[in-house]
Fold Cytochrome bc1 complex cytochrome c subunit.
Amino acid sequence: MRANTHTTARPSRQARSSRPAGPNRKAGRRHPLATIALIAIGLGLTGGAYAAFNTSTASAAPTVASQESVDQGKKLFQANCATCHGLNATGTSNGPSLIGVGAAAVDFQVGTGRMPMAMQGPQAPEKPVQFTEADIKALSAYVASLAPGPGIPDASLLDGKGNAANGGELFRVNCAMCHNVAGAGGALTEGKYAPPLKGVSAQHIYEAMVTGPQNMPVFNDLNISPSDKRDIITYLKYIEKNQSPGGFELGSLGPVAEGLFLWIFGVGAVIALTVWITAKSN
């Protein structure tokens, strides 16, 4: 006998396709533009956070200058700087881009005579300034107009009336490994060097900290606050004005110079005295 089999009738394909979608299916559907919208929101939030971070780390407000000063700076730039940095300051194989370096970088480099460079080398040396103060301000205004960057520091941060003790501690922790504890400078690798800081203006010291010229790292306001930068400047100006309590400081180069001085002159004097006594007795 053949066993009875029961089959369940299935709805036709046409019936299934004409069946209205349930509420769960409607709720789970995603609009085709949803992914694009999420990407746009993510990019907007990322850009906003980046802009806020850059604003928080800026050391000074961008320098506000007249359009006349900017135009004059552009002419000076194209005549004296475009060969290395490009007509639009975007950089070439001979010089970096200046977009975003701010007025502080231009004021430091040009104001100390490091720029324009006389020749390519491991480091731009300090030399006599080739521009007037008005021209330097115009160049700074032009570069600052290209993109936001560190501005010229406020005079209140350069008065040298901060905490010299705190500034000395900060300098020893962050700067002394290159510039020496007394700011006397020192040699680095591959022909580079950290310059001495005696005789450097407070404005240029501050600008160097916020722009990081040559091999120097950048110390923005998250690394060293403006008041701490003021303290460092106060310390440097204090040791510049006050003589070393130990007498002849031998260039403040530390124990190597002192040991060499003692070996040459101290031991030499002992040998000379011994020879003199021996000759005298004979």
